[in-house]
Amino acid sequence: MPTEKERLDAVEPKVATLISHVAQLADELSRVTARLVVLERRLSGAGDGDVAALDSVDECAALVSALRAAWDAEQELLAEKVRVALRQEVAEFEGMKSRLAALRAKLGGRGVSRYERDHLDHEARQLEWQIGASEASFASASDRLAADEDASTEDWRQEAVVAGDKARAEMQDFAAARVSSALGASLRMPVWFRVGVGEITTPDPAPWLRAAVALVAYRLEYGVDDPVNPLGAVPSASSGSAAWVRRTEVHADIVSQLASLSAVFRLQ
């Protein structure tokens, strides 16, 4: 008859095997649970009804009209940072001309040693070269500032810009209400929306909601209708106009938000 120790020695490998199997089952259960969480998030954004018309302008036509009018008005207005840069360029050019005039006056005066005269003459020649090289750019900057000043005094343009700022703030509220309504009604989100913001982040959905609202508002304001690409074509601020600079900055901000969401998804 086997002793107690012999019986324990015989059972111990079986117990170890069972423990290993339990650990494997626990790991598998964790993977399944994680997958269910992902599916729940997708379902929370996918819904089971009709596709949500998130970028339809039917219910916000007045806001869109005001924003489009502001867009047209700001085409001839410079963005503030562009205006500042052009003014700086003009000031630097005029400063060089003033320094050159002062050097010439000093060179034409009496009591200047030969050494000092040579030094002043060299400095004047350098300034003349710099002025010549910058003259075309200065003329362009001056013309753009003059056109901007003329445009900024037009009453209709000023009124459109003010109305656009008001409509832009209201559009954010409208977009937030539309996203919340679509989620509450279990509507299916369009492809571009899912491509853009993905699944609702947990445990804090606030970053996801901010990005979703910004994305919807952007598409409504700028008339983006691409069915897949959330933000449509990448805008360019090369014109320096207030309209295009703002759009480019908003686009960059939303891209940054969407990238942050992607990073969160990878960590979850």
Task: Explain what the structure shows.
This protein is mostly helical and 268 residues long. The chain has one domain. 76% of the residues lie in helices and 0% in strands. The protein is built from eight helices and no strands. The longest helix is centred in the first third of the chain and has 43 residues. It is elongated. The chain starts with a helix and ends with a helix.
Strands, helices and their partners?
Elements lengths: L3 H43 L14 H13 L6 H28 L6 H39 L2 H30 L6 H7 L8 H17 L19 H26 L1
Helix pairs in contact: 2-5, 3-4, 5-7, 7-8
> What is the helical fraction, as a range of percent?
over 70%
Quickly count the helices. 8
Beta percentage is under 5%
Shape: elongated
Q: Largest sheet at a glance?
A: none
User: Number of DSSP strands?
Assistant: 0
SS-based structural class? Answer: mainly alpha
- Cα radius of gyration in angstroms: 33 Å
- Give the averaged pLDDT, no decimals: 88
The low-confidence parts are 41-45
Order of helices and strands: HHHHHHHH
The end-to-end span amounts to 56 Å
Q: How many domains, in number, for the residues?
A: 1
Key descriptive features of the protein:
268 residues; mainly alpha; 76% helix
Can you summarize this structure?
The protein has 268 residues and is mostly helical. 76% of the residues lie in helices and 0% in strands. It has helices at 4-46, 61-73, 80-107, 114-152, 155-184, 191-197, 206-222, 242-267.
